[in-house]
Amino acid sequence: MKRELLQKFEEIFGDSGAYGVYFAPGRVNLIGEHTDYNGGHVFPCALTIGTYAVARKREDKKLRFYSMNFEQMGIIESSIENLEKKEDNWSNYPKGVIWAMQLKGYDISSGMDILYFGNIPNGSGLSSSASLEVLTGFVLDQLFGLGISFTDLALLGQYAENKFIGVNCGIMDQFAVAMGKKDNAIFLDTADLSYEYAPLDLGGAKIVIMNTNKKRGLGDSKYNERRSECEAALADLQKVVEIKTLGDLSEEQFETYKEAIKDPVHATRAKHAVYENQRTIKAVEALKKNDLTLFGQLMNASHKSTQFDYEVTGIELDTIVEAAWKQEGVIGARMTGAGFGGCAVSIVKGEAVDSFIREVGKEYKDKIGYEASFYVVEVGNGPVIL
Ligand code: GLA
């Protein structure tokens, strides 16, 4: 991999000057969906698939970006003095991060040549964009010796996504990418960014990601709408109970105060946020006690909540998850990420993985009309220099 990347870099940018090779992972969220902008908990893990970069500093102020995933777009030129967003262009992600770093006062004194290659299917809900953002921050941190912590790299990525790209995402994706730890999931409290690693001891079971191959773009999805619905519910609740976020409420408290939420749709959105947060806390406790059965049941309940209360699944995700639930050897299955297409995640007993993929694949194709893809994934580390 490294040799191919270096060859491509020299072919595209010429071979003058020293360069480094870097990697940042993608992520999958096991449970805790749409809780991260509601002050709740999430439980994602980094993957061993992700994004690679080869990069070097330039003498001038020019930025030259190239992606092996979008070769038809060629080299994209910009300048550290003028970072403009272009419609529908992958380079908005690295540009956004460099813009955010400048805004936060980091001294980026020269331009760069950066080549990227990612092996996360993009638009699938496995955080190809957060991976690209955190990777870019990491590359700059290394090239300019900025000494940025991994938590700050995550925050810079989120800032770029919110303010440059225009998607009001929470911190989960960038945090999971930046803080990934092999064979561990990250139990993160998004209210204060305190976190704990939880060993993913699945007793021989595997994480199987099921890609519906229905693409979703966060920007044009209903993501920002869900966020405002939760904010409206919170504002109503704050008139009757002293809370900072929906994540402050237990299920019982929610039931006590829910009448304060004027709009019934906002109330069901808030219900998801509150119950999903509590489910995530319970799921991590279950995992710690080696109770995988309970962990799986909570994953299944999480899917139903995203389907009926939060309404972010859709026919493709529901079909694939329902097919997964029917299989022998499945411990739990649910949609993962923002929803509206993309991927679902399941935990499947090792010996059942092959038949699981075959049967779920068949049922999905029969009902939806095109193929799903499956990835048996490993849990990996955060950003590294290769
Ligand atoms: C996307 C966002 C995250 C999170 C999830 C839903 O992946 O980027 O911040 O809100 O959706 O859990």
Short characterization:
This protein is α+β, with helices and mostly antiparallel strands. Helix content is 41%, strand content 21%. The structure holds alpha-D-galactopyranose.
Runs with pLDDT <50, length 5+? none
Structural class: alpha+beta
Oligomer: single chain
The gyration radius over C-alpha positions equals 21 Å
Reading side by side through the largest sheet, how are the strands ordered? Answer: 5-4-6-3-1-13
Beta-strand content bin: 15-25%
Task: List bound small molecules.
Answer: alpha-D-galactopyranose
Architecture of the domain at 2-198 in CATH? 2-Layer Sandwich
How confident is the prediction overall: mean pLDDT? 95
Q: What is the count of β-strands?
A: 13
Ends: how far apart?
A: 10 Å
Largest sheet: 6 strands, mixed
**Helix coverage percent of residues?**
40-55%
Shape verdict = globular
For the record, the CATH class of the domain at 2-198 is: Alpha Beta
Q: How many DSSP H or I helices?
A: 11
Element-by-element helix/strand order:
HEEEEEHEHHHEEEHHHHHEEHEE
Q: What is the third-level CATH name, the topology of the domain at 2-198?
A: Ribosomal Protein S5, domain 2
Provide structural commentary.
The protein has 386 residues and is α+β, with helices and mostly antiparallel strands. The protein has a domain at 2-198: Ribosomal Protein S5, domain 2 (2-Layer Sandwich). Helices cover 41% and strands 21% of the residues. The chain has helices at 2-13, 92-103, 128-144, 150-165, 172-179, 223-237, 251-257, 264-288, 292-309, 315-325, 353-368, and strands spanning 20-29, 41-42, 44-57, 62-67, 76-79, 112-118, 184-189, 194-199, 206-211, 330-335, 343-348, 373-377, 384-385. It has a six-stranded mixed sheet with strand order 5-4-6-3-1-13, sandwiched between helices. Strand 4 (62-67) and strand 5 form a beta hairpin. Helix 2 (92-103) packs across helix 4 and helix 3 crosses helix 5. It is globular and about 65 Å long. The termini are close together. The site of alpha-D-galactopyranose has 10 residues, from helix 5. Residues 33-34, 36-37, 169-170, 172-173, 337-338 line the site of alpha-D-galactopyranose.
